[in-house]
Amino acid sequence: GVQDEGEPGIPGVEVTITYPDGTTETVVTDENGYYEFPNVPNGESTIEFKTPDGYIPTTENVGDDTKDSDGTKVTVNVDGKDDPTIDSGFIKETPVYDLGDKVWFDEDKDGIQDANESGIEGVTVTLTKPDGTTVTTTTDANGNYIFTDLPNGDYVVTFETPDGYNGPTVVNAGDDALDSDGQVVNVTIQDADDMTIDSGFIKVKVGDTVWEDTNKDGVQDEGEPGIPGVEVTITYPDGTTETVVTDENGYYEFPNVPNGESTIEFKTPDGYIPTTENVGDDTK
């Protein structure tokens, strides 16, 4: 708020005076930031400084009246004497930018947001600023999020794993506008917005085969056929259930199983009884 030695004047700034009779006059500061109204009558006048582009006003009235800033609008009482102390200081406005993008469900687990893959609502996203402070937001109904008014600097974006998902998908698999940048992302803002910081999350598949154990040894041997049409029901961690039916090869799958404890139940097919359990390689 004080004009120190070496701080330059700002040329081209409009300064307007409103005289006691209500008339106005406007001048423009010269190459040194100097302005003058040479013929001001006695009485109360008002001087207004137009904020120059790229600047904001500095602190007002913090010191010696010949060196401090009087603000952008100043009332002056003239009584037959010159007043060369009506000045105004400005500071360069720090440019700010936006950062954001999307959190989505990567159904095919390829690390790329495909056209049919939807955003995930309500995901917590935390931004750690260059000074170590943090700010948090949540994704909207389409999975979008944004942090605004960020000056240049190094940031960290952290995506919380959303409820019902297992974790992040493949990272940096292709086009930066469509691929996943991971769960913790270092970002440098440098004179531009960055709306490419996104994160994909997956759910895991659970499944295998229901088969006829012809030799009754509890192991699926080569040549032992799958059993089609068997009902298989999963109870998810939240208590909801889903039922599928084995295909012609006895195969079944639950493609989107969230983290947590689920229970899978096989309905015994007509004409069969369960074979011996857990006698060998878990894949067979």
From TrEMBL:
Q: Which domain of life is it from?
A: Bacteria
Any single GO CC term annotated in Swiss-Prot or TrEMBL for this entry:
extracellular region
Q: Where is this region: Disordered?
A: 250-284
Q: Which residues form the SD-repeat containing protein B domain?
A: 1-90, 98-201, 205-283
Name where it mostly resides: secreted
Coiled-coil residues:
none
InterPro entries reported for this sequence: Ig-like_fold (IPR013783), SDr/BOS_complex (IPR051417), Sdr_B (IPR033764)
Family annotation (Gene3D superfamilies): Immunoglobulins
Keywords in alphabetical order, please.
Answer: Secreted, Signal
Localisation per UniProt entry:
Secreted
Q: Pfam families, alphabetically?
A: SdrD_B (PF17210)
PANTHER family reported for this sequence: CARBOXYPEPTIDASE REGULATORY REGION-CONTAINING (PTHR23303), COLOSSIN-A (PTHR23303:SF15)
Protein name as catalogued: SD-repeat containing protein B domain-containing protein
What is the species listed in this Swiss-Prot or TrEMBL entry? Answer: Staphylococcus rostri
Instruction: Give the organism's phylogenetic lineage.
Output: Bacteria, Bacillati, Bacillota, Bacilli, Bacillales
